[in-house]
Amino acid sequence: MEDIVSLCKRRGFIWQGSDVYGGMAGTWDFGPLGTTLKKKVTDAWWKYWVEDREDMFGVDAAIIMNPNVWRASGHTETFNDPLIECKECHNRFRADKLGDFPASVTREQIEAAGVKCPKCGKMNWSEIRQFNGMFQTAVGVDEGNIAYLRPETAQGIFTNYKNVVDTIYPDLPFGIAQYGKAFRNEISPRDFIFRSREFSQMEIEYFIDPENWEAEFDKIMGECHDFLENKMGLKPENVHELDVPAEDRAHYSKRTIDIEFDYPIGCEELMGIAYRTDFDLGNIQRESGKNMEYIVKGSDKRFVPHVIEPSIGVERLVMAILTTAYTEDEINGEKRIVLALPEDLAPYRFCVSPLLKNKPELVGKAREVYATLRAKYGNVTWDDSGNIGKRYRKQDEIGTPKCVVIDFDTLEDGTVTVRDRDTTEQVRVKIEEL
Ligand code: ATP
Q1: 281 within some domain
Q2: Does the beta carbon of 155 sit less than 6 angstroms from any atom of ligand 1?
Q3: 396 lines ligand 1 (CB under 6 A)
Q4: Which end of the chain is more exposed for a tag (fewer CB within 10 A), N or C?
Q5: E strand or H helix at 271, and its extent?
Q6: Which residue from 311, 312, 317, 319 has its CB within 8 A of the most atoms of ligand 1, so it is best to mutate?
Q7: Residue 332 in domain
Q8: Helix (H, G, I), strand (E, B) or coil at 109
Q9: Per-residue pLDDT for 273 more than 80?
Q10: Ligand 1 binding pocket includes 94 (Cβ within 6 Å)
């Protein structure tokens, strides 16, 4: 983990939020390379789930929503984590994360398991109290006018379900997708970008006829595996399913399967697939007084659809991708670090450089090749610093699949050297064939 964090910092992928001011716990800033990687991940998600399908539609809802949303959804009442305090050193912890405990953990269970305070090593625990994870803010000039930063993007989908049906009237089943920021006042943010207070989610609510929920659930599970393993390059042996027992499920879910991933910090939740029934649309119908029924086309069958929700955190996915890609190997007795990212996710597809920086004819030709590749692929970088070996090391570390080098032969025969990140093999290729 430390190696990955240090690479991310050194190469401009991810920095601690506000680090010039000593940081801000639970927040992370993405640098130039991290921003590109994150964008490629969200773009790939959007393409797979929305653009390549006929039954998915996108929305982009506001982060600050009417507080009635969170009352109706149950978040104001139940979006809680169990908080425990060490009575010796007064540090506070999320009780269920002090060991392998359910969310309903009690002080007695913590004591019976002999859990000591991770900070001071003593065992003198307070009672557990429920701590609400929503961030509050005041809207407008009235300080009592409380609103919340959304703790999930899902409610921005449910509140627009009727708008989508009324404007598009898709056949059932259909899904609405949204990605964007979510905020949770985590008791103990930790493990790099794994658990932060501000993060991004990519969520889908897939509206179905409840008669078919099991088949639809299985279909979505299959698609989630396909996306993670075939598009994001995660190794199937590192991806596991956990059928979440009732006492650990969110208040709205009748079935949840967490997809867990073997992170360096352990096997932890990467995404959740939840059968949320008609819980949310039912609440909206009750609280808003508006009808949420779907009328099946060409019939008089009408009902409030149920939903299957695949929900994934962008940062947790980025962390899984970085974990998979990070490799250390040895080439001709020399150690190197390689970020073996899938080609489609690498921040740069090519790096172009002239063999020598002080030969104008090489630089001129290299600039030409650079412009051509940029026009064709977009994400191409230029590097003429240091010697060629150093450039390769740097490009290996940031995951650039191919380095293109322009040398004196290029001027003669129009071929360039293309060096492969993973094998370090070099081949001569005609410029037109790049
Ligand atoms: P956990 O049990 O780890 O707190 P959760 O079950 O509360 O997670 P969900 O409510 O299912 O998480 O949220 C859906 C997804 O959002 C998660 O699978 C995860 O990828 C992401 N996520 C949730 N909380 C965080 C966080 N604090 N930081 C980063 N990503 C998060």
Answers
A1: yes
A2: no
A3: no
A4: N
A5: strand 266-277
A6: 311
A7: no
A8: helix
A9: yes
A10: no
CATH of the domain at 228: 3.30.930.10
Does pTM top 0.90 for this prediction? yes
CA distances, 287 to each of 42, 63, 73, 140, 302 (Å) = 33, 20, 10, 24, 20
Q: Is the pLDDT of residue 191 over 80?
A: yes
Contact by Cβ (8 Å): 232, 320: yes
Tens digits of residue pLDDT in 341-370: 999 999 999 999 999 999 999 999 999 999
- Tell which one of 181, 199, 248 to mutate to probe ligand 1, the residue whose CB is within 8 A of the most ligand atoms: 199
**Is the four-CA dihedral 50, 55, 59, 64 of positive or negative sign?**
negative
Q: How confident is the model at residue 331, as a pLDDT?
A: 84
Q: What is the reported pLDDT for 386?
A: 86
Q: Which residues contact 322 (CB under 8 A, 6 or more apart)?
A: 4, 8, 13, 339
Indicate if 58 and 90 belong to the same structural domain: no
Do 279 and 427 fall into the same domain? no
Same domain, 181 and 44: yes
Pair 314, 399 in one domain = no
- The H-assigned helical ranges of 107-263 are 107-112, 154-158, 161-168, 213-226
Confidence of residue 260 (pLDDT cuts 50, 70, 90): very high
- Beta-strand relationship, 198-208 and 306-313: antiparallel
Beta strands at 146-149 and 174-183: parallel, antiparallel or unpaired: unpaired
Indicate whether 291 belongs to any domain: yes
The answer, yes or no, to whether any atom of ligand 1 lies below 6 A from the CB of 75, is no
For residue 364, give the CATH number of its domain. Answer: 3.40.50.800
Q: 3-class DSSP state for residue 200?
A: strand
Percent of the chain with pLDDT over 90: 94
Give the dihedral of Cα atoms 157, 159, 162, 165; nearest 10 deg.
-10
pLDDT at 148 over 90: yes
> How much is the pLDDT for 249?
86
pLDDT for position 248: 82
Residues 251 and 153 in one domain: yes
Contacts of 397 (CB under 8 A, 6+ apart): 7, 10, 11, 337, 338, 339
| CA 354 – CA 16 distance, rounded (Å) | 35
Number of domains in the chain: 3
Q: Domain span at residue 139? A: 2-69+135-323
Ligand 1 pocket check for 311: Cβ under 6 Å: yes
pLDDT above 90: residue 333: no
Co-location of 240 and 318 in the same domain: yes
